[in-house]
Amino acid sequence: MIRRVCIAFSLSLTLAAGTAEAQSWEAIERVEHYKVNGTEPIELYRSIGERGPKISLGRTIAHTSFKLTWQRDYQQQGQACVLATAKPKLIITYTLPKAAQSLPPAVAAKWKAFSDGIVEHEKLHGEFMKDLTQQIQDVSIGLRNENDPGCKKVRAALQAQLKPISDAHVARHGEYDRVEMSPGGAVHQLILTFLNP
Predict the structure, then answer these.
(1) Element (H, E) at 91
(2) Can you tell me the distance from the alpha carbon of 152 to that of 146, in angstroms, rounded to the nearest whole number?
(3) Cβ(156)–Cβ(15) under 8 Å?
(4) Would you say residue 10 has pLDDT above 90?
(5) What is the DSSP letter of 33?
């Protein structure tokens, strides 16, 4: 039985005041594997269904999550407040299947093609997360409120900016998965090619 693949992400935005200057940033990317048993495609796929990462909708083939935190420097300039710098720390974690034992050559070749395709799918989720982080930084740095002693208004203005960015991000992931996993989509084809003789 072919189960629908669901890829999900988790988002944690933490606001922290700091004095770091705005600069270019790089995401930290990590890979975690879970082991699947079997020496035939159907056995490996069943093991994925039993051991794959758990999310709210059940188990998945793979999972991409991220944690995003910020160092933000709010500066009081007379009665005005400006968000002078915003430095992100983005950690992306890919959870992927790995065969627990040696596979016969023909199965190993099919497994490699299947695994490579899943990695490619997940990596694009990672790129979406990098895009999100850059969008947040772009709207953050230089954000200013002229009458804002205590920098409360500019913080609220930032939160108002973040909601539509976050909503668009969620929609982008959802649409990507919908296309990839629908009949004829890339992930759907990966599964069929892997399981068919």
Answers:
(1) strand 80-99
(2) 12
(3) no
(4) no
(5) E
Residue 27: which of 106, 74, 92 has the closest Cα?
A: 92
Distance, C-alpha 96 to centroid of its chain:
13
Q: How far apart are CA 32 and CA 73, in angstroms?
A: 34
Q: Are 27 and 129 in contact (CB under 8 A)?
A: yes
| Predicted pLDDT at 175 | 94
Q: How many CB atoms lie within 10 A of CB 30?
A: 11
Give me the half-sphere count of Cα atoms (radius 13 Å) on the Cβ side of residue 142.
Answer: 3
Of 56-65, 80-89, 102-111, the poorest mean pLDDT is in 56-65
Place of tokens 């490619």: 120
Inter-residue contact 191 to 5 (CB < 8 Å): yes
State the sign of the Cα–Cα–Cα–Cα dihedral 42, 46, 51, 56: positive
- 161, 159, 153, 162: which is closest to 81 by C-alpha? 153
